[in-house]
Amino acid sequence: MDLEHKPLTTAKDSVVIRPFYPSDASQVLNVYFTGLVSGVDSAGYFAVTRAFLHWTPMYIAYILSFSGGGVLLLALRTDFQILGLVIVLLSCCFILLIYYRIRNTFLGYYQDGLRHDMTDISQYYRQDHEKNGSPIRCFWVAEIPSMTSETGYEVVGCVALDCSTNNNGPLMGELKRLFVLPTCRKRGIGTKLMQTVIAFAKEKKISSLQLETTNFQPVAREMYSRLGWYHSATRDSDFEAGGMKMNFVEYMLPL
Ligand SMILES: CC(C)(COP(=O)(O)OP(=O)(O)OC[C@H]1O[C@@H](n2cnc3c(N)ncnc32)[C@H](O)[C@@H]1OP(=O)(O)O)[C@@H](O)C(=O)NCCC(=O)NCCS
Fold first, then answer.
1. C-alpha pair distances (Å), 149 with each of 7, 158, 206, 225
2. CA of residue 188 to ligand 1 center, whole Å
3. What residues form DSSP beta bridges with 163?
4. Neighbours of 100 (CB within 10 A)
5. Does ligand 1 lie within 6 Å of residue 227's CB atom?
6. I want to staple 241 with a disulfide (CB 3.0 to 4.6 A). Which of 47, 74, 80, 157 is the partner?
7. Separation of 191 CA from ligand 1 center, angstroms?
8. Chain-centroid distance, C-alpha 193
9. Domain named N-acetyltransferase: which ranges (predicted)?
10. What is the C-alpha to C-alpha distance for residues 50 and 54, in angstroms, rounded to an integer?
11. How many domains does the chain have?
12. Amino acid 149: pLDDT
């Protein structure tokens, strides 16, 4: 099948799932960044929300900064004013430090991807790999029509299949890079992207799929369970946000 130019699936509201074109690169990186680091329901967003809204040390920092601010305003020209200033500065530094640490962690994951398959998506996921009996890989995007974009469309989601191990045993593929822009969620695009990978994997005689997510992505986990994936393993990470440790969670789907 020529995957270069044929849309694989068309959703009812003009969403088209098709293989990646090189001209999609910058839009895909935006979807990737939003989905991992900054957008609603991304792991980075979950970690920040958890730390800022559900963590006792953060509440203490809020209370201290308000009380320090009060002392600063009321205790004019007394030694207490310096104390108030120190309390405000220390609590603000704590809040900023937590934010910086969380953001840096997820920027690190983003940059790891940039050093790996996301550096040059067309090269890593190129279709002619298969011709030499080499890895089966493909990268898809979800596009919607756009009046404002020069290309006439906007990339709003992506997903990848990476089936690199081919040691004469059953083929096992990895589903990766599943992201949908927050403005386009809950329209079935994520599900359609996954169905596209599953259909392609079946066509390529891949016997099972695996994926890795985290306990900081509850929406994605819920979706995997609903689509028949089963939880196969959990690995600890060193990272903790808002008093909650992040774990890497693996899922499998026999095909
Ligand atoms: C996970 C993700 C790809 C789902 O994309 P999507 O286009 O919203 O998916 P769908 O529209 O197919 O919805 C899947 C289900 O999740 C539900 N859902 C989506 N967003 C939700 C939210 N914020 N809260 C609760 N449920 C939500 C949908 O209602 C739907 O369930 P339903 O079929 O029972 O109605 C998207 O939320 C996302 O990009 N999240 C951030 C990145 C991420 O976690 N990616 C996974 C990497 S491992």
1. 19, 18, 37, 36
2. 8
3. 136
4. 11
5. no
6. 47
7. 8
8. 14
9. 100-255
10. 5
11. 2
12. 81
Residues 17 and 87 both lie in one domain: no
Residue the block writes with tokens 């004013």? 81
What is the rounded average pLDDT of the residues 226-248?
Answer: 95
Residue 241 and residue 126 share a domain: yes
**Is the same domain home to 148 and 205?**
yes
Instruction: Point out which residues pair with 214 in neighbouring strands.
Output: 248
CA 128 to ligand 1 centroid distance, Å: 32
Considering the domain boundaries, does residue 134 fall inside one? yes
Q: Is the CB of 185 under 6 A from ligand 1?
A: yes
CATH number of the domain encompassing residue 204: 3.40.630.30
| Ligand 1 contact, 179 CB (< 6 A) | yes
Residue 36 falls inside a structural domain: no
Measured in Å, residue 43 CA sits from the centre of ligand 1 at: 13
Cα(11) to ligand 1 centroid in Å equals: 16
32 assigned to some structural domain: no
| Among the ranges given (26-35, 119-128, 181-190, 195-204), the one the predictor scored with the smallest mean pLDDT | 119-128
Task: Tell me how far apart the 2 most distant CA atoms of the chain are, in Å.
Answer: 79
Domain that holds residue 160: 9-23+121-254
- Pocket probe for ligand 1: among 177, 183, 219, the residue whose CB has the most ligand atoms within 8 Å is 219
Domain stops at, among 113, 129, 159: 113
